[in-house]
Known about the structure:
The model has no long low-confidence stretch (mean pLDDT 88). By secondary structure, the protein is α+β, with helices and mostly antiparallel strands. The protein has a four-stranded antiparallel β-sheet. It has a single domain, classed as Alpha-Beta Plaits (2-Layer Sandwich), CATH 3.30.70.
Amino acid sequence: MTKMRWVFACFLLCATAAVTQEHYTEGPVWRVTLVKVKPAQMDAYLTSLRQATKPLLEEEKRTGVIVDYKVFLKETNSSPQDWDIALAVEYKNHAAMDGLTAKGEAARDKIMGGKQQAQQLAEKRQEIREVVSSELLQEIMLK
């Protein structure tokens, strides 16, 4: 009977995947990070993004590590704990994220000069912002 349950479970999983794929095709994968900037620190945070993050992301884009990136400024707040800035990084697919740490470190070392400088930047950013969440999203195109 256990073997029969396993076969049935596999059948349901395959059937569910087939029905899901009927509705959409998979697009790129996005890493979206929601950030809450501390009071009176927006200028400092945007300066940091422009001076440090943008060159790094541009290098990753140039070398094909990422497809694109976007920065969003939230114009509405539903609570005092709400996020202010969304950073979205686009990858071609899940496979493009294989070996991402090594690729990111290579870009970081080229742009920022190494791990120590990146750690110093991360410490400074902790003083001016809080990461609310970081999500991995699969973009889909409806059929």
